[in-house]
Amino acid sequence: MTAYAIARLRDVDFGPDIVEYLRRIDDTLEPYGGRFVVHGGAYRVLEGEWSGDTIVIAFPDVERAYGWYESPVYREILALRTEHSTADVIIVEGVKEGYRGADALAKLLPAEEGDGDA
């Protein structure tokens, strides 16, 4: 199941270290099947508050996502970003093909209430 590394970057001090990080990150993703699906694109806030740039990297599965983040090759460049920006970063597992919002009811309601068509 696809997994995603999602980051919200704020207060980026765009200098030589961030340039170096961006030049090197693609090589860290390749062995783990990672690819950018969002990289700081334009957005419009519809609810709540949001600031900064959003980055989403897709991986074939959660194991490879964690493998990438914890790999020596990524750890080698991580400080180039963390010392020059503020970020929230998560890894989240995606859903199976064909998933529907009502499928969440099986986890949220007792078995007898979650059964049946929603």
Provide a concise account of the structure shown.
It is built from five helices and four strands, in the order βαββααβαα.
Task: Walk me through what this model shows.
With 118 residues, the protein is α+β, with helices and mostly antiparallel strands. The chain has a single domain, classed as Alpha-Beta Plaits (2-Layer Sandwich). The chain is built from 5 helices and 4 strands, in the order E-H-E-E-H-H-E-H-H. The chain has helices at residues 16-29, 62-70, 72-82, 105-108, 111-114; strands spanning 3-10, 35-39, 53-59, 86-93. Strands 2-3-1-4 form a 4-stranded antiparallel sheet. The longest helix is centred in the first third of the chain and has 14 residues, at 16-29. The radius of gyration is 18 Å and the shape is globular.
Low-pLDDT residue intervals, each spanning 5 or more residues: none
Structural class: alpha+beta
Order of helices and strands: EHEEHHEHH
- CATH class descriptor name: Alpha Beta
Please summarize the sheet with the most strands: 4 strands, antiparallel
Give the CA-CA distance, first to last residue.
24 Å
> What is the alpha-carbon Rg in Å?
18 Å
General form: globular
